[in-house]
Each structure stands twice: as structure tokens, then as C-alpha cells.
Specification:
By secondary structure, this protein is an alpha/beta fold. Among the domains are: 115 residues, Rossmann fold; 97 residues, GMP Synthetase, Chain A, domain 3. It contains 16 helices and 26 strands. The strands form six sheets. The protein has a nine-stranded mixed beta sheet, with helices on both faces. Strands 16, 17, 19, 20 and 21 form a five-stranded antiparallel beta sheet that branches. Helix 9 crosses helix 10. The longest helix has 16 residues. It is globular and about 65 Å long. The structure holds methylmalonyl-coenzyme A and adenosine monophosphate. Methylmalonyl-coenzyme A binds next to helix 8, helix 10 and strand 13.
């Protein structure tokens, strides 16, 4: 490694014999990860001194290859652009084109979906296995300034297409230090990772925090409630983080066990040190039931792709149901009214955040970046109130953002596509409270004359363009959409018109 290597990698160098990643590909030490990082980094550099923030897009399932490609990209001076394994070809193409990726890497099972876009961009599609495990000579890696840009994560917003959120190495380091301190990470920890790795939650809070602390990370290629529950209760795991939908599924899996298996699992779960919930509001019934199942009061925290983690219940001390605690160290946070003026305690206001973990820019969107900040404060669009010394999240300013199973969906993006369906004259998409998903995507549709679009038809129409989590789960045919005097759909009124989901 070069002298100026990133602190994340320098710390790994002090733990070469310790297990770093346990995954479907095998068990790997920090020494293995360091060697793979050097192989990937050298291959990407291919004789050049520094990738100089070139974008490296990769579609690889969560596992050792993922970690090695991420670290190899960073060690070579590139910007990592993780691609979502759940995305269909058009969404992958959008991210690759928008980020201006100079390198595209795929695991074998994803080659076919990426080949056309690689060809169109005149790029060879690199093979993940060959990069990570190939027999190649390693060379010198560049010295890196932590102020350099490291990562682009794509996120949907209330306007326009998804935007790339840029994180520097320094912001990632700052986030990881904050969480390490606040949540008590130690080298003896072993995290179980069941989340996708193109979001802050899985990538930073779990994987990077574990590796930064010389702890191990056991990675499942995808979430499966039975497997996750069994691994959590195995006695090997000390840290687990997930979205509320996942906790709900773990509860269901536990309830399906026989009496004595339940007891065994409950005893195993009680051994964990830390269980965190985030990415969406944790319903109090899930918090309460999980306490009965596992003995743990979930630590709920609040974050966002643009700011990382901002608010957290305490690791030690009282965790308040339905609340997200206090600002994490170094996070400057305030609640403001519509004019940007701070509100007194007990009055709801928009959350604004500043601090070293806040993102630096939307990739190649200076106007959107400028609009997102006000006098140096990032405007989250989330509404909260400070009561009895803790913050409670009350909702969002925009009705066009939906959070389903921890995934963010832009109603406008779904509407734009649905309007191109021949049976749809007009439509509006809203998020409706849902016990499984938190919110479910519901489409209210005015059909064209003589057309009778149904849910399955609309879902299969949209599926080739949009990720499956964005597809409507309920369809309501209406004669007309409620509109205000300016002709804009009044979504709060529309929400009241949606009948309960017949399939729920
Ligand atoms: C999958 N499906 C979904 C979702 N996920 N539908 C709605 N909302 C979703 N989130 C679709 C599948 O494509 C499938 O569709 C059908 O639902 C059933 O799939 P199933 O196997 O039950 O679901 P799954 O594949 O097991 O996924 C559920 C999940 C997953 C494990 C809860 O959504 C998930 O990993 N969510 C977490 C996302 C996350 O990490 N968010 C963090 C971002 P079909 O049958 O039609 O094919 S927020 C963040 O990072 C900030 C910083 C923060 O605060 O944390
Ligand atoms: P994303 O942009 O996908 O990173 O999602 C961030 C959004 O998730 C935030 O702006 C909030 O709306 C929501 N969120 C994250 N954590 C919580 C939480 N604990 N309670 C309520 N909403 C949350």
C-alpha cells in the first residue's frame, strides 16, 4: 500500500490475520481483503498512476467481491458507483450514463444485463471474479487526499430523475467515526449484513463501520428471514441493522417456529450487543413485539443518503419508542419554519443539518445542489418536533416521496411512466400506510375510453423500466383526480379516497 493510503485501509493493515468478511465466496481475513484490494486497484490502474476520480460502476451481489472492488476502486483513486442488483436494464443504464462511468464491472450473473450499455459506451465489461481473484502483478497505488470524492449513491427526489449523491472519503470517515463512537463498535464485533449495498445503511453503517473497527462482517447475498434469524441466533453475531419491514419479517419467521425452537432463537438473539432500526419510521408495535422476541429494545435512528446519520437514540440509556433521539456527535441540527426561522421546542419544523458527514454535491447538478442548501444548512424535507428532549419524525414535506420497505420511490417517476401506458389517460401515485412496507405505492388511474387496465397489466408494463419496489401494489380506477383551482392533483385528498387494499 502507498504511504498515503486511506485510513480505512491503514487500519485493516493492523489486523491482517483477523476475519474481515464471511460470505458465499468463503471466509476472508483483512490480509485477504488487502491483497484483493491491491489486485483490483492495480488492474483498474492498468499502469496509470491514479484513476483521478474516474467513476467505476459495479454490479456485484453483496459479498467479498463487493468489498474488494469497492476498496480497490478507492485505493486506485476512483469514485465507486455501486449499482443496485434489483434494477432492470434501463435504470442501470441511467446510473451508468449519468455518472459518466469509465469502467463497468459485473459479476457473471449480471453480465447479460450490462453488456449492451458497456458496448454502447465503448467499454469492455470487466469481470468481477477475474479482478478480485485473478493472478496479476500488483503495482504502486496512489497517495490519496481524504478530501477527494469517493462515492456516488443514487437517490430519488421530489423533482426530476434520480440524482447522484457525492460523498468524499473525509465524509465517509467522519460518519464511520461518529457511529463507531456512538454505537460502541469493537474489533470483537461480528455484524450480520442483510441489506443491499447501494445505500448508506448497508454500505456505511454496517460494512464500512465493521471493517473500520477491524470487526468481521458476515454477508448474506440477499435477505431471507429464516436464514437471517438462524444466523443471528447462532452466537456468532453481535451487531444487526435493518429496516422496519425486515424486523417485521423476522417476527413472522419467529412466530412460525415451534415452541422449543422459538425459545432457542430468543436465547440466541439476546446475546447480540446491538440491534438498530432505520431508513423508515419504526412502528411501535414492531418495537414492542421485537422486544418480546429478542429481549432487545431496538435502537432507532434517523438518516438520509445526503447527510448520513443525524439523530440516534442512545446506545446506553433510555431509548424512546416512536422517537429518534438526539443529534449524533458533530451533527449540527435544527428545526425551522417555512421561512427558515428556527422553531421553539414543541413546534414542528423542517429538519436542517450541517456537519462533516453531509454530502458535498449532487453529481453534475450544481443547481440542484444549490437549491438543497439554505445558508449552509441542508434542507432534508422531513418534519420533526423536539419533545421531552428527543426528536420525533412526523412526516415529509413532499407528498411525492414514498418510503416502501426502506426504499425511496418518487411518485412523479412512476406517474411519468404510467402515463405512457395506452390504457391510462391520467394518473397520480401516492404512498398509503401499510403494515408490511411502511407505505405502499398506490396508483389512482383515469382509464382511456374503453380501456380496463388492471394491476397485473400495469405492473408488468412498468417492470421492464422501473425497479420492482417502485411498482404500484394497488390500483384504483377513478373517473377523475381531485384537483385544486390551478389544476394540480390534491394528493392528501386523493389519499383519503383510496379504499383499503383488498389483497392486504
Ligand atoms: C422488494 N420488493 C419491494 C420492496 N423490496 N416492494 C416494495 N418495497 C420494497 N422495499 C418487491 C420485490 O421486488 C418483489 O416483487 C416483491 O416485492 C416481494 O419481494 P420479497 O422477496 O418479499 O422482498 P425482498 O426482495 O425480500 O425485499 C424486501 C426487503 C428489501 C428485504 C425489505 O426491500 C430491502 O432490503 N429493503 C431495505 C432497503 C434499504 O437498505 N434502504 C436503505 C435506504 P415482485 O414479486 O413483483 O418481483 S435509506 C438509507 O440508506 C438512509 C441513509 C437511512 O436512513 O438508512
Ligand atoms: P433515503 O433518501 O433513501 O436515504 O431515505 C432517507 C429518508 O428516510 C429520510 O429523509 C426520512 O424520510 C426517512 N427515514 C430515515 N430514517 C427514519 C426514521 N427513523 N424514521 C422516519 N423516517 C426515517
Amino acid at each position: 500500500m502507498a504511504d498515503g493510503s486511506l485510513e480505512l485501509m491503514a487500519r485493516a493493515a493492523g489486523a491482517l490475520e483477523l476475519p474481515a468478511v464471511v460470505a458465499s465466496e468463503g471466509t476472508f481475513t483483512f490480509g485477504d481483503l488487502q491483497a484483493a484490494t491491491e489486485r483490483v486497484g492495480s488492474a483498474l490502474l492498468d499502469g496509470t498512476p491514479d484513476l483521478a476520480e474516474a467513476r467505476v460502476a459495479f454490479l456485484v451481489p453483496p459479498g467479498f467481491r463487493y468489498a474488494a472492488i469497492l476498496w480497490g476502486t478507492w485505493a486506485a483513486g476512483g469514485m465507486a458507483v455501486p449499482l443496485a442488483t434489483s434494477f432492470p436494464a434501463p435504470e442501470l443504464r441511467y446510473v451508468i450514463e449519468d455518472s459518466g462511468a469509465a469502467v463497468i464491472i459485473a459479476a457473471g450473473e449480471f453480465r447479460a444485463v450490462l453488456e449492451p450499455v458497456a458496448r454502447d459506451r465503448g467499454l469492455a465489461l470487466a469481470d468481477a471474479d477475474e479482478l478480485v481473484f485473478g493472478d496479476r502483478e500488483t503495482g504502486r497505488l496512489p497517495d490519496l487526499d481524504p478530501a477527494r470524492r469517493a462515492l456516488i449513491l443514487y437517490t430519488s427526489g421530489s423533482t426530476g430523475p434520480p440524482k447522484g449523491v457525492v460523498w468524499t472519503h473525509a465524509a465517509i470517515e467522519s460518519q464511520v467515526r461518529i457511529l463507531s463512537e456512538a454505537w460502541g463498535w469493537v474489533p470483537e464485533d461480528r455484524a450480520l449484513l442483510v441489506l443491499p449495498l447501494h445505500h448508506v445503511h448497508g454500505l456505511v453503517n454496517v460494512l464500512t463501520c465493521a471493517l473500520w473497527n477491524q470487526a468481521g462482517c458476515e454477508i448474506l447475498p440477499a435477505f431471507d428471514a429464516g436464514t437471517a434469524l438462524e444466523r443471528m441466533a447462532s452466537g456468532d453475531i453481535s451487531v444487526f441493522m435493518a429496516v422496519p419491514t425486515i424486523y417485521r419479517r423476522l417476527i413472522t419467521a419467529w412466530e412460525q417456529l415451534g415452541e422449543s425452537d422459538r425459545r432457542g432463537v430468543t436465547e440466541g438473539l439476546a446475546q447480540l450487543r446491538l440491534m438498530v432500526s432505520g431508513s423508515a419510521a419504526l412502528p411501535v408495535p414492531i418495537l414492542d413485539r421485537w422486544k418480546e422476541v429478542s429481549g432487545h429494545t431496538l435502537l432507532e435512528r434517523y438518516g438520509m443518503t445526503e447527510i448520513g446519520m443525524a439523530l440516534s437514540n442512545p446506545y446506553q440509556g433510555k431509548r424512546t419508542a416512536g422517537a429518534v433521539g438526539r443529534p449524533l456527535p458533530t451533527v449540527d441540527l435544527r428545526l425551522v419554519d417555512d421561512d427558515g426561522v428556527p422553531v421553539p421546542d414543541g413546534t414542528p419544523g423542517e429538519i436542517q443539518v450541517r456537519g462533516p458527514s453531509v454530502f458535498s454535491e449532487y453529481w453534475r447538478r450544481p443547481d440542484a445542489t444549490e437549491d438543497a442548501f439554505r445558508e449552509g444548512w441542508f434542507q432534508t424535507g422531513d418534519i420533526a418536533v423536539l419533545e421531552d428532549g428527543v426528536y420525533r419524525i412526523l412526516g415529509r414535506q413532499s407528498v411525492d416521496i414514498i418510503k416502501s420497505g426502506g426504499e425511496k420511490v418518487s411518485a412523479l417517476e412512476v406517474e411519468d411512466l404510467l402515463r405512457t401506458h395506452p390504457g391510462i389517460h391520467d394518473c397520480a401515485v401516492v404512498g398509503i400506510e401499510d403494515v408490511d412496507w411502511g407505505e405502499r405505492v398506490v396508483a389512482a388511474v383515469v382509464a382511456t375510453a374503453n380501456a380496463e387496465p388492471d394491476l397485473e397489466d400495469i405492473r408488468s408494463f412498468a417492470r421492464t423500466t422501473l425497479a420492482a419496489f417502485k411498482l404500484p401494489r394497488q390500483l384504483v380506477i377513478v373517473d377523475e383526480l381531485p384537483r385544486n383551482a390551478l389544476g394540480k392533483v390534491v394528493k392528501p385528498r386523493l389519499k383519503e379516497m383510496i379504499p383499503p387494499d383488498p389483497d392486504a
